[in-house]
Amino acid sequence: MSDARQVLLVMDFQQGIVARLGNEAVLAAAGRAVEAARAAGVPVMFVRVAFRPGFPEAAESNRTFGGIRGTGDAMTQDNPLTQIHPALAPRPDEPVIVKRRVSAFSGSDLDVLLRGARAGSLVLAGISTSGVVLSTLRQAADLDYSLTVLADACADPDPEIHRVLTEKVFPRQADVVGVDEWAGTLAPAQPVR
């Protein structure tokens, strides 16, 4: 793992997605990652996917989001289903980034926040492994970030896809570890003087 300043990205752990695709184990693992990061002074940033009312960002040609217009307001930015799951409640000083596509970088201000945090290393947790984690990892690698994926703090609707990504694809561009192993590498935060 690089000595660059780490930032933990907790991605798409929003109420509607956790209810559909998450499970207690992945939610608990993400919670342990957040607590370990906080204890070590590692910045935590939360990412969620949501749209403005009427979905002006969702082009009909987009296979993932094109059909969202006729689905009510469940994916709008103010809907409770798009808010971060209460088990992972962000602190007031922890940014919550709203993205408009699959990657945490697309349609968001994540890049600006990471530059402001002087990040050089990203630690990824998210739902789903084949969605936000894969898309963000690929884009972050192209942006020259050092990467770690917390395999047990990621979930996918298809366990086999999760396995192939975490065991065969992600290791080409990232360290893939469990939350407890990663937490064991962190030093306690130094007291502010």
Main β-sheet, spatial strand arrangement: 3-2-1-4-5-6
Overall mean pLDDT: 93
Order of helices and strands: EHHEEHEHEHEH
| Helix/strand structural class | alpha/beta
Strand content: 15-25%
Shape: globular
| Number of DSSP helical runs | 6
Poorly predicted runs: none
Amount of helix: 25-40%
Radius of gyration: 16 Å
Number of strands: 6
- Sheet with the most strands, sense and barrel status: 6 strands, parallel
Head-to-tail CA distance between termini: 28 Å
Task: Note the topology.
Blueprint: E1 6-11, H1 15-21, H2 24-40, E2 44-49, E3 96-99, H3 110-116, E4 121-127, H4 129-142, E5 146-155, H5 159-169, E6 175-177, H6 179-183
Parallel strand pairs: 1-2, 1-4, 2-3, 4-5, 5-6
Summarize the structure.
The protein has 193 residues and is an alpha/beta fold. Helices cover 32% and strands 19% of the residues.
Describe the protein's architecture and organization:
- Helix content is 32%, strand content 19%.
- A six-stranded parallel β-sheet has the order 3-2-1-4-5-6, with helices on both faces.
- The two termini are 28 Å apart.
- The protein is α/β, with parallel strands linked by helices.
- The chain has six helices and six strands, in the order βααββαβαβαβα.
Can you tag this structure with a few keywords?
193 residues; 32% helix; alpha/beta
